[in-house]
Structures
1.
Amino acid sequence: MKRLLIAAALAGAVLAPISAQAANDTVTFAQRLEPPGLDPRTGAAAAISLTTLYNVYEGLTRMDEKSMVHPALAESWTISDDGLTYTFKLREGVKFHDGADFDSSDVKYTFEANAAEDSQNKRKDRFTNMESIETPDANTVVIKLKARRPALLEQLSESTAVIVDPASDATNATKPIGTGPYKVASWTKGDSLKLTAADTYRDKDDVAIKNVTIRFIGDGPARLAALLAGDVDVADIPKELIGSDALKDDFNVVVGNTNGETILSTNNANEALSKLKVRQAIAHAINRQELIDGAMFGFGTPIGTHFAPHHPDYLDLTGTYPYDPEKSKQLLAEAGYPDGLELSLKLPPVDDYARKGGQIVAAQLEKAGFKINIENVDWPKWLDEVYKNKNYDLSIVSHVEPMDIGIYARENYYFNYNNPKFNEVVAAAESAASPAERTELLQTAQKILADDAVNGFMFQLPRVVVGRKGLNGVWSDLPFFVTDASRMSWSD
């Protein structure tokens, strides 16, 4: 199969030049999914952040690939002794792409809009926690919190906290206006997004890459073909092809971590799935290593709860419900389903962990007495039916936001999980007075989720991409999904 895929890729590449590097100021990326819109504050899809964060939009802070926080639209800040007041000094002379001046009023507008009753921001709670936002002058913002948030500076570097201009806010999903190093030149639906260097950007002379193209290529072998043909410079390709000879001379393989917890999403409001023994039966039926080997070709780290293994507060809970299909059958019978249980499994269009992984998970569950009906859906349908309307039994998706264990405390979130004790623990962890207290609370929260078998916890999504040699600045780790093109460059 590997030879067939490589042959198909090479066949598509044979008439093309080997390098896509038309100029030392141009780079082309292949991206699996097309974003449904271009405003990262209002959409759940990681593809939005991957295209626009740090390229088109900026926040007060920014984070690098090692999760270190740096100044962005804020050049400096101070924090009160009680951890409740943050004073930000903003950069002067910053402009939006349409020429409008950036100042403290834009920060106030953006954060208040994120907290508004009709806000679609998926991190809305971070902004409703802001007691007040004061703007004593154009270059100063004072944020007073209702409760401490020791991780606020990291949180303000994420896509949900990018700053927008009130005048262009309503059309940002299709015509994004930010303060970043690039503006959108064109968006050809179903094909590509083109970015070009923004004349308004304050540090435009320091940006080596002037033109960025993001091509939307859903098929893995097609991404490999585009890479070999010289049509793209960076792509994730089928992991079974990472070691192929075709990639050895002209490409580098970049391997690292993401914060993507890959889970068997479970609708806890379903009559059968609301029963702990049924969820425990699912947990015992999952063979994580078989999934990693079969769907990810060995890339990935097993997880037993919703937390990144590389985080210092991680607790290894993979042994909570060890693989035991006979135990699954026993639990299923005890829950009232001695003849098995029929469930649907809706899979989004991600070829490895979702589609390949879904086939493996279905086989594992059926070995334990379940009957699984697989339904492959496109991304808009997944977002509508599963994420928004909760019309599903099971699904598979990677939750890629950093430190997102708090999603289990959200009211009406698509897992339909409601545990007041968990909510209390997570809230306390968010405002913990010391790192030691925060660690203890986060580990308690991890154990609650594992014990409740809220979802089928499978593996941490790895970062594996192939880049053309000579391109510098491609992140090996992705603390969140971002393509930081302005800090890339080509070697001479």
2.
Amino acid sequence: MTIKLYCFGESGNAYKAALPLQLSGLDWAPVKVDFFNGATRTPEYRAEVNEMGEVPVLVDGDITLTQSGVIQHYITEKTGKFGGATPEEAREVLRWQFWDNHKLSSQAGMTRFLMNFLPEEKRPAEVIAFTQGRLKAAYQVLEAHLGGA
């Protein structure tokens, strides 16, 4: 049975679910959601797909999962890939997933939305500057870790 991933191309969180699906070799297909015309805000979408009104949503038979980190974890459980060979490695993967969801992707997504999807006259310069500062701090943590510092 083909796994379905409700998503849209501009969503970084949907990308975080689609990438491990693609790399895992699992049989999956995107279900494109018309986010910008309000599809996720309809009562039908919330009742039938995701009560939170968000993407991504993974449907694998009787299993429906939301939130990119949970979907990534499910793919790891299902395939044995991407999760670390030992419990310590698995916790390290989870630690960085949680950090990404809280410190990096949330700031990057908000900043990207404010800068690219709002009309220029509605872009809140002070908020953008604040989120860019938070994003810069997150990138510094990531760069230090990847550099071995």
3.
Amino acid sequence: MIKFFKNIRKKLLDQGRTGNYFKYAIGEIVLVVIGILIALQINNWNDEQKAKRIEENFFENVLVDLKKDQEKLNYYIKFHIKRIEYLDTLLTYIRNPNRTMGIDKFGEYVEPLFYSVNPTNNVTTFDSAKSMGEFNNFKEKELLKDLSRYYADFVLIENAFSSITRFVESRFEPLMYNLPEGYMNDSTGSLVINEEDVKAFYKKVASIKDNRNITYDYEMILRTPMLENYVIGDMGRTYNAIGKIRSRQTMLTQLQERIAHH
């Protein structure tokens, strides 16, 4: 093609048709410019399509992550609502001294309180895209901003859960150390809610026969003001955690709906 245009220019010069030559040269330049502009347009279109596909894939993967978050949050709600029920039961017996709980039931209701939750945040897709600089080419800036705030607010869940854990370790465990744990049997952990299977642990402890003939004075712990103070403190922290979880659930649902319709 280049040789073809070259021959035309040479022929025009040989014929002394300088005016036509310059007209032709200008036309050729215009064609080249148009070609470059078309090529740039195609290249820009390809880049836009690529960025669009990357953005669509990103939000598809984010929806998968949010679905995992949703399942976790449902578990956290169940865990902490049950914790409230156990604390409520203990407080009822604490404030009704004429009611006898019995060591087995006492063990079943205090044992779940040793457990707390380590929250997980499915942020892999978001962090990966952010570190690769992909957000610069995304069009859904407001949605990205809200998604960023959703992940940043995870610290509220972490703080609420760690508050319960620290309270268990500093107040509950030292109090319960006064009661030997030889009373534990196969059903002691029946009320425990945990992502890991803890049945083997309680079965193992129960399988080791206790020959000490210890009298388990759980009433001493049940009636101490320290246990009442603990139960109320744990209940307050648990209600706070539930509030943070529900708030996050609302934000998650709104994000899912917006991403699905963006």
